[in-house]
Design a protein that fits this description.
The protein is of the alpha/beta class. The chain folds into 2 domains: 220 residues, Thiolase/Chalcone synthase (Peroxisomal Thiolase, Chain A, domain 1, 3-Layer(aba) Sandwich), CATH 3.40.47; 149 residues, 3-Layer(aba) Sandwich (Peroxisomal Thiolase, Chain A, domain 1), CATH 3.40.47.10. 30% of the residues lie in helices and 21% in strands. It is built from 12 helices and 13 strands. The radius of gyration is 19 Å and the shape is globular. 51% of the residues are buried. The protein binds oxa(dethia)-CoA. Oxa(dethia)-CoA binds next to helix 2, helix 6, helix 8 and strand 12.
Amino acid sequence: MTRPVLGVRLTGWGAYAPSLVLTNADLEKMVETNDEWIVSRTGIRERRIAGPDETTASMAAVAGLRAIATAGLAPDDIDLILVGTLTADYPMPSAAALVKSAIGNKRAAAMDLAAACSGFLFGYATAYAYIMSGFAKHVLVIGAETLSRATDWTDRGTCILFGDGAGAAVLSASEEPGGTLGVHLTTEPSGAYFIWLPAGGAARPANAATLEAREHFMKMKGSETFRMAVRTLGSTATAAVQKAGWTLDEVDLVIPHQANIRIIEGLAKALDFPMDRVFVNVQCYGNTSAASVPLALAEAVDAGRVKPGDKILLVAFGAGLTSAAIAFEWTGDPAEAARAAGIGHEQVSIAPGYLDAINPFPPDLEWVRARQSSPAVEPA
Ligand code: UT7
């Protein structure tokens, strides 16, 4: 007889960042901005940009395979694939369906989750519920974005912020209690239009007028979003810690959504939590939306910032306005990262023909072509 599921543990982790680097100096050539302004207002120094042959699904597949490898599993052990993204390759099929094909899984259900920058953590919470209910044993949760293709490269208020990438985790059923202890999600629609993408959906299908008005790119009310972010991240983080039965001083590492160093510092201040126990990599990647927390998590493990038994707090905030926090005990062996070392250098094939519809880069991103090295993921 199968024993009941008593806990949900994070057993695998992985990330993928494209090799193209867009620096603040590059942005100075594209819009009226400067390195000093960007660094002092955001903390961002550079971000990664997907090459012409890369998409959200291709990056997600590599991060996912790396997470499956660190979990010591095979792709077919995964029962459910969840991809948090606001930049799926297509409105349909889901990015998750393309990921399933790319990783060679034959059995999983696969779907996308739309919660913007909180997408990975909404996926984590969904996986938690599916596992605790007995529906799934191993769930692959991915946050992946190609924000460079939804960014208005003429808008200095947004284009300095965003980057591309993917991160993933495997969550597994456990017959022991522990692992994931505090899960808290919120959605506050009064700020639904603080960050949004006006055209291309059912309300405003893309047409010549929407293209002319550049409405198929992300728009943002920066300072309203900023204030709401600091307030909401603090309350969501506190709620997850309370649900876990911890106090904040017991938390070993906070891994927040990497939107802006000032938001992260504002969160630490609001919680009275020391910055040396907050993981930050926004300087290297900018805001990668749903990819940001799992990308930071994988880097924190690689940097030796987590060890078995540590109490970890993940917290994110994004369009919707959504917010999510997960408090969990680290149960993985950081040395397992070695298993994923070679993955992503070989070919990972997506559905045949899936690259045919990719938009060409806008002409002002010619530097991408000029500096492009071989993509890490070649299409079939
Ligand atoms: O994942 C969640 C989604 N998004 C976020 O979390 C982003 C939240 N917001 C922010 O991070 C910040 O609001 C920004 C970084 C976007 C902007 O920083 P800010 O300190 O709120 O600046 P501001 O929008 O109040 O602009 C201050 C000044 C303005 O000039 P004036 O009107 O004071 O003369 C802007 O025009 O800075 C100007 N400015 C720039 N200057 C140089 C705005 N963008 C730029 C730029 N370079 N890129």
